[in-house]
Every structure is written in C-alpha cells, then in structure tokens.
Amino acid sequence: MEFRKLRLAGFKSFVEPAELRIEPGLTGVVGPNGCGKSNLLEALRWVMGEGSPKSMRSGGMDDVIFAGTGKRPARGFAQVTLGMAGAAGEEIEVSRRIERGSGSDYRVNGRDTRAQDVRLLFADSATGAHSPAIVGQGRISAIIAAKPAERRMLLEEAAGIAGLHVRRREAEIR
Ligand code: ATP
Ligand code: MG
Q1: Rounded Cα–Cα distance for residues 73 and 71 (Å)
Q2: Which is the most buried residue in 2, 43, 108, 171, by most CB within 10 A?
Q3: What pTM was computed for the model?
Q4: 73 known ligand binder
Q5: Atom in ligand 1 nearest the alpha carbon of residue 37
Q6: Residue 88, CA distances (Å) to 80, 96, 113, 120, 131 in order
Q7: What CATH code is assigned to 2-173?
C-alpha cells in the first residue's frame, strides 16, 4: 500500500482542515519547533488505529481534539483521513473521527469498520501505527536501547512478517 494523502481537521494543532500530498519515496517533515511536525506523525499513527493515548503524548483519547487557544475555541471533534493506493492501484480511504466524550469510529471507503479490522488492514505491510517505517523523535535511540525481544519485533515488522503474529492472535481470539 502506498500513502497518497493525509487530511486533518481539528486534530491537535491542525484546527483548520488541511490536506497533505504524500509523494513516493522518503518523506521528511521540517519546520520550526512547535509547528506540528510530531502532531502530523501522530495523526498518521492515529488513523491507522493507535490505541494508546500515552504514545500520542496525551492523557486521554479526547486530547487529540483541538483544545483551543486564547483566540480560538476548542473543537468538538477531530478527524483524520488517509488516502492510499492498494496493490492493484485501487484507492483506499481510511478515516477516523472522534467526538468529545463519545469515542472514535472508523470508516474504510465510507463504510463503518471496526478498529481491529483497520489494524489488520495495516498489519501485513510495513505500515501500521507502530511501524518502524515511521521514525519519530527519540525513536532512533529507543531502537538502540531496545531489549533483544523488542528489537526482534521491530526487525520482524520491518521485514513485513509481524502481521502474521497479529493474525494469529486474532485467530486465537475467534
Ligand atoms: P518540535 O520541533 O519541538 O518537536 P513539533 O513541530 O514536533 O515541535 P508538535 O509537538 O507537533 O511540534 O506541536 C506542538 C504544538 O501542538 C504545541 O503548540 C501544542 O500546544 C499543540 N497541541 C498539541 N495538542 C493540542 C491540542 N489538543 N489542541 C491544540 N493544540 C495542541
Ligand atoms: Mg516534535
């Protein structure tokens, strides 16, 4: 799967709707401190099913919603949409929306989809909320300091076989 575009609205500092095109190859995000670079990566992980507020530098899930500033009121919801091209070039659009106080839901090509199915969608590729293909601040030193078992997981993800573990867990649950 290839990422093509990312749309955000009301997500953290991205209060106004914004759309970014993602070109093939390596993407770097640059800008002054506090401009929202890390927020952008968190939006990407969030739409792919990130379930841990802590790994989003948040106390609770609602903290991803624009909290307001001196000049602007808070928003009641946040939405992130990831546009992708599938293996056969077909368009896939995954979006996640959270309303303050009532949790989040997902849509894949406009249809309601369960969180675990969204995570499965990304489980086989080198994508996904915990993908080593997304290198955030502090991540390099975390990889160097990782215990052998954690580092193995990272390598398995990079090799594209970590999805098999997710599938096996799913199969065991069902
Ligand atoms: P640095 O270069 O220092 O790493 P950065 O470009 O990664 O900076 P971010 O951490 O993405 O910057 O953005 C930080 C900004 O996002 C802060 O100004 C913070 O107030 C704002 N922010 C985070 N969450 C919210 C929220 N829920 N509502 C409004 N603003 C938010
Ligand atoms: Mg940052």
Answers
A1: 7
A2: 43
A3: 0.82
A4: no
A5: 6
A6: 24, 24, 22, 18, 22
A7: 3.40.50.300
Which residue CA neighbors atom 17 of ligand 1 most closely? 34
**Distance (Å) from CA 5 to ligand 2 centroid:** 20
Tell me which residue has tokens 């995570």.
119
The residue whose CA has the least distance to atom 30 of ligand 1 is 13
> How distant is the alpha carbon of residue 43 from its chain centre?
5
CA distance 73 to 35: 19
For residues 79 and 135, the model is more confident at 79
Per-residue pLDDT, averaged over 109-122, amounts to 93
The pLDDT tens digits for 66-104 are 999 999 999 999 999 999 998 899 999 999 999 999 999
Other Cβ atoms closer than 10 A to 71? 5
Other beta carbons within 10 angstroms of residue 29's beta carbon come to 13
Domain boundaries, the chain: 2-173
pLDDT at 140: 73
